TrEMBL record:
Name of the protein: (+)-neomenthol dehydrogenase
Database matches in Pfam families: adh_short_C2
Record family assignment: Belongs to the short-chain dehydrogenases/reductases (SDR) family.
Keywords assigned by UniProt, alphabetized: NADP, Oxidoreductase
InterPro entries linked to this entry: NAD(P)-bd_dom_sf (IPR036291), SDR_fam (IPR002347)
Taxonomic source organism: Gossypium raimondii
Cross-referenced PANTHER family: (+)-NEOMENTHOL DEHYDROGENASE, OS02G0640600 PROTEIN
Length: 238
């Protein structure tokens, strides 16, 4: 019987919620998971929870703050030293920012991210000419209008505009990176409106259900689809 090559995964924001469940489901498939979190104590406690479930051989912890370049570099060095490679990266870490309109959040959680600024919508919809510079230009203009208090006048989303713009930008970067790195499988997914701390547990599906879709994409074979957006398990328009 041919020897199965060990696969290695990094999951950001893995100490609770969807991230922790992603770690659990991926590790249960035999993949070595590096569970990361900003808070070392919480991260180590999360790893112990998974070890108690019999996954001690497939999960380790490393501290990571995705907004801190030094922290990112430390993780890279750790992975290189310990495993020599990484096969799967799940970019799960995120913050809620502020309390917001839960109806808007619910709509966004079902993939209905509507960038109402017509200029931004046109740029983000033009997949053939989309570039990182163009996405950065949109975000810079949004921040300028935000600081000037002119979001409504410039046609930006009325509710949770920062959340919506961040999702739209992430989707755009997915398309750009998938085109740039053709030997990688790069997708983005909306897991649904999941009951987690980020929405004060106002969601309607469990973390187990919410994690299923990211895990499915993380474990795609080498010839799997790339550059796509999924709402749970269904391919969707950007």
């Amino acid at each position: 019987m041919a020897e199965v090559t060990k696969r290695y995964a990094v999951v950001t924001g893995g100490n609770k919620g969807i991230g922790l469940e992603i770690c659990k489901q991926v590790a249960s498939k035999g993949t070595m998971v590096v569970l990361t979190a900003r808070d070392e104590k919480r991260g180590l406690e999360a790893v112990e929870k998974l070890k108690d479930l019999g996954l001690s051989g497939n999960v380790v912890f490393h501290q990571l703050d995705v907004a801190d370049p030094a922290s990112v570099a430390s993780l890279v060095d750790f992975v290189k030293t310990q495993f020599g490679k990484v096969d799967i990266l799940v970019n799960n870490a995120g913050i809620g920012g502020v309390k917001g309109d839960f109806e808007a959040l619910r709509a966004a959680a079902f993939g209905k991210v509507n960038v109402s600024n017509e200029w931004a919508k046109a740029v983000l919809s033009d997949a053939g000419n989309l570039t990182e510079d163009k996405v950065d230009e949109i975000l810079s203009q949004y921040m300028k209008d935000f600081k000037e208090g002119s979001l409504q006048g410039k046609g930006w989303p009325a509710f949770m505009s920062a959340y919506i713009l961040s999702k739209a930008a992430m989707n755009a970067y997915t398309r750009i990176l998938a085109k740039k790195y053709i030997n990688f499988i790069i997708n983005c997914v909306c897991p649904g409106f999941v009951k987690t701390d980020i929405n004060f547990n106002s969601g309607i599906i469990s973390v187990e259900e919410g994690a299923e879709s990211p895990v499915r994409l993380a474990l795609l074979p080498n010839n799997g689809p790339s550059g796509l957006f999924f709402v749970r398990k269904e391919e969707s328009e950007f």
